[in-house]
Amino acid sequence: MGVSSDNIHGLVLAVSSSVFIGSSFIIKKKGLVKAGTNGTRAGSGGYSYLHEPWWWAGMITMIVGEIANFAAYAFAPAILVTPLGALSIIFSAVLAHFILKERLHIFGVLGCVLCVVGSTTIVLHAPYEKTIVSVKQVWHLATEPGFLVYAAIIVVIVAALIFYYVPRYGHTHLIVYVGICSLMGSITVMSVKAVSIALKLTFGGSNQFDYLQTWFFIVVVAVCCVLQINYLNKALDTFNTAVVSPVYYVMFTSFTILASMIMFKDWDSQNGSQIATELCGFVTILSGTFLLHKTKDMGSNPSALLPPPITNPGTVEDQSLDGR
Question: Which of 139, 166, 174, 207 is the most exposed place for a label (fewest CB within 10 A)?
Fold first, then answer.
């Protein structure tokens, strides 16, 4: 089975997007660090980074990447475009290693490789884009009971994270900030895909901006993006960049593909073998993320992994018994 020209266009745009977005993590991190020395840190609720040129440079870089990513969804299915975000993990981790001095251990490198292998597996077995001739067709898919239930669950979970878990666990648990970004990200991507399809059809001669549904999707994209940017800033300012990037990628990708499966029914056209292969790709990605997360401090503090020295080996009572 050959690769369609639309999928190739989507592939090129998605790869370009990953390069820009991976770079933006590092540039924004530098801005956040500089802003934190002159004002309240973003992780503590401050917005001094808005006066920092480095943060704005990173923001512009991210916008360019998101535009490329936005365009990619007009040509290829989400299940193909989204996993390619793994490339931004590699680019971000390498730059963090050399520029921010956030050292990556060899197992962290292996984790990055596993993320790429898993993503490649998913992409190679992804379904082709379905033919859509009107934004009303996308609206019909979005208002089916299955996706409405999914969207309602996402809103409830995000509200619980923002109002209950952020004040209590936001500064100590990475999953809180990244969870908000990832869950809302799945809704964002579905809306982005609707808007990108509307633009593609409009440029093709069929104006989709006459429909109220198109503007509804645009509003959803704007609201979700503001929410994601805010909590992604908090995550980057509070935790190691080399960990934020891959964890965000895996959660965002997982929820986005789940949302796409529910809304666009991507798996309806695939057999059991293809679906099983894609699930294996997910397991590989999760394995890579686990390695990155568990080894995040190995590069910067290798001694932390070693057992405490025994100062008096002849006396059992003097040895620590707290090494649980």
Answer: 207
Closest by CA position to 214, among listed 164, 139, 265, 269: 139
Residue 232 vs residues 151, 227, 304: alpha-carbon distances, Å? 21, 9, 28
From the list 76, 189, 88, the residue with the least C-alpha distance to 126 is 76
Residue 110 burial by CB count (10 A; 0-12/13-18/19+): exposed, middle or buried? middle
- Distances from the Cα of 90 to the Cα of 12, 94, 97, 258, angstroms: 17, 6, 11, 24
Pair 24, 18: CB distance under 8 Å: no
How far is residue 126's CA from residue 222's CA, in Å, rounded to a whole number? 28
Look at residues 300, 123, 225, 190 and name the one whose alpha carbon lies nearest to residue 233: 225
Query: Rounded to an integer, what distance in angstroms lies between the CA atom of residue 194 and that of residue 198?
Result: 6
Task: Express each pLDDT in 31-78 by its tens digit.
Answer: 888 887 877 776 666 778 888 899 899 999 989 998 898 899 988 888
Reported as a single tens digit per residue, the pLDDT across 78-99 is 888 888 877 777 777 778 878 8
